[in-house]
Each structure stands twice: as structure tokens, then as C-alpha cells.
Design goal:
The chain has 326 residues and is α/β, with parallel strands linked by helices. The chain folds into two domains: 134 residues, ATPase, nucleotide binding domain (Nucleotidyltransferase, domain 5, 2-Layer Sandwich); 172 residues, 2-Layer Sandwich (Nucleotidyltransferase, domain 5). The longest helix has 25 residues.
């Protein structure tokens, strides 16, 4: 490929990592880069990291010219009218920046930047390149540091609100339940995100008089690792099995509500927890059981195919659609 060929750059900022990808005009993936998000990082730290990643992935792809456009999948609500991040429940400082972060990226990487929620662009990538479809409605849900959703209608993000839509993570699944990072009580994210699973496990452990070896391991683990440690023992440990049952029941309640409200043909699940080998086999029947018989069998629950590159690839694809529309 020519060092000056046209291309699109996609960027991602999530709870634990930042990622960049380069797509050509036919949406072929040319290069990707990923970096860990350090604990305690601020909004300005994130912008600096994205600039560094963007430049590095351009070099990896052998490209010397600026991209045609840049898409940014942001891990939180996005102010679409002002084309900037609105808020992140897990990272401080987005409401305190003096200069719009999209403007900072444009100045550093020399191309227009289009900001959209990370789940929306991940869903866009899955619809075009992965487990979803560009025909009809695909609902995308991520199970990771948070729980989010995206609606893709006929190959485009179905944008209905100024701050986004598809927020399945903040559906209430437990009345007056656990505190969520959004400030509400009983949200799905407080029970089915990676950190939520870990916190609920710690609550159960603290109420146990005789902790098991696994409980002790989880109590001493770094919070972001607790869900992984817990679910790795689901085959052999009764406590892990009980916690997995609670996780699946809450998740099925929310997914069934999406099925009732939107009736998507494809329900695609991405994020770190989507890689649990038993997830879809156990979850899909529970969702079906929560639907009226007339509505069963019409929603395919699938694991996302693009893995860790779904957000940056979707962001680059989103940028290409914005340029074409403009």
C-alpha cells in the first residue's frame, strides 16, 4: 500500500485500555495498537495517550499522510451537538478541560475528529464486519469494565438522543439495589460489569462466617481481576456457581427487556466477559424464558467476532460514514 494512500483512523478509550486502528477505504484493517490505561489517569492523560497511539499506528501501517478522518469511540456518554465526551463514570476531568478534546486531537493528528460512544461504534463494526448485520436492527451490548449498548439500524448508528441511547447498563434490575457508578441504585452495571461482579462477590464473602480458599483469593485480588478469578472456577466451586447464577439472572432480565422493546434480529455481546465459554449457552435460554411464547425464537444471541478491535475499527468506520455524508 502506498505510504500516502487514503485511510481512516479509529481510536478507543475504555476503562482498562486505549486502542487505535487503521482502516482503508474498503474497511480492511491495516494496523492496530493497544496500550493499558494506567490507574488514576485523568482526561488529559487520555488525550495524550490517544495522540501517541494514533501516531504509532500510522507508522505501523507505513502511512505518512494524515487520515481522511478520525473516529473516537469514547467510554461514556457523548455530547453529539458539541462533538465531545460528556462524562465518564470511571475517569475524572472530562468536564474540566479548557479545550475540546476533539479539537486537541485534530490539531495533533491533522484530520477532522468525530466522537461517538464506544458501544455504538463497536456495534457498527459488528454489523458491518462481525456477528451483526447491515439489514434491520442489531443490538450490541458490551460486558466489560461497564455495561453499555448500541443500536444499529440498516448499517448505521440509530442516534435518537443528544447524549446517546441503548444504555442497557443503567436499566434497573434490582429495586433499591447496589450503588452504581452513575449514582443510581440497582443498575445492571452494578451487577454484571466486571467491577460489579467483583463487588457483589465481596459483599457475599463479607457476610460469610467461613470463607473458602477461593473467597480469600478473591478478597485479596486487585478489583479488576475479581470477576475473572471468580468465573474461572464456575465448574468446581459452589460459591462461584452461585455468583454466576445471580449474574446470569440479572443479565437475562435486562436482555429480555431489550427483546420486548426493540425485537432485534441480532443481539451481539462483546467485551471481556463475553469470552466466558458458557455465557451464550446459559444466557440464551434464560432470555427466551422471560419472553412471551409468541416472541420466542426471533432474536439470535451471539458473541461478538471482532474482539478487542471492535471499538477502534467501528470508530474508523463511523468516521468514513460521516465523511461520506458530509
Amino acid at each position: 500500500m502506498s505510504s500516502t494512500a487514503p485511510y481512516f483512523l479509529g481510536l478507543e478509550t475504555g476503562g482498562t485500555k486505549a486502542t487505535a486502528a487503521v482502516l482503508d477505504h474498503e474497511h480492511n484493517q491495516l494496523a492496530t495498537r493497544e496500550a493499558a490505561r494506567p490507574a488514576g489517569a485523568t482526561a488529559q492523560d487520555t488525550i495524550s495517550q490517544l495522540i501517541e497511539l494514533g501516531r504509532a499506528v500510522q507508522t505501523d501501517a507505513g502511512l505518512e499522510n494524515p487520515p481522511d478522518a478520525i473516529g473516537w469511540g469514547f467510554g461514556g456518554p457523548v455530547d453529539r451537538q458539541q462533538n465531545k465526551p460528556a462524562y465518564n463514570f470511571h475517569e475524572s476531568g472530562w468536564d474540566q478541560l479548557e479545550t475540546n478534546p476533539a479539537t486537541q486531537l485534530e490539531a495533533a493528528l491533522h484530520a477532522p475528529v468525530y466522537v461517538e460512544n464506544d458501544c455504538e461504534v463497536a456495534g457498527l463494526a459488528e454489523a458491518h464486519l462481525g456477528a451483526g448485520s447491515t439489514e434491520g436492527l442489531t443490538f450490541y451490548m458490551t460486558l466489560g469494565s461497564g455495561v453499555g449498548g448500541g443500536l444499529i439500524w440498516n448499517g448505521r448508528i440509530l442516534a435518537s438522543g443528544p447524549l446517546g441511547e441503548g444504555e442497557i447498563g443503567h436499566m434497573k434490575v434490582v429495586a433499591q439495589g447496589a450503588q452504581c457508578a452513575c449514582g443510581q441504585l440497582g443498575c445492571l452495571e452494578a451487577y454484571c460489569s466486571g467491577w460489579g461482579v467483583g463487588e457483589r462477590a465481596i459483599e457475599a464473602i463479607n457476610s460469610t462466617e467461613q470463607p473458602t480458599p477461593l473467597m480469600k483469593v478473591i478478597s485479596e485480588a486487585e478489583p479488576r481481576e475479581r470477576a475473572k478469578l471468580l468465573f474461572a472456577e464456575c465448574q468446581d466451586d459452589l460459591f462461584a456457581q452461585d455468583q454466576a447464577e445471580v449474574f446470569l439472572d440479572h443479565l437475562a432480565d435486562a436482555c429480555a427487556n431489550v427483546g420486548l422493546l426493540l425485537a432485534p434480529k441480532n443481539f451481539v455481546i462483546g467485551g471481556g466477559l463475553s469470552q466466558l465459554p458458557w455465557l451464550v449457552d446459559k444466557l440464551a435460554p434464560r432470555i427466551e424464558s422471560r419472553l412471551p411464547e409468541l416472541m420466542r425464537g426471533h432474536m439470535d444471541v451471539k458473541v461478538a467476532q471482532l474482539g478487542s478491535v471492535s471499538v477502534p475499527c467501528g470508530a474508523a468506520l463511523y468516521a468514513s460514514q460521516r465523511v461520506a455524508k458530509r
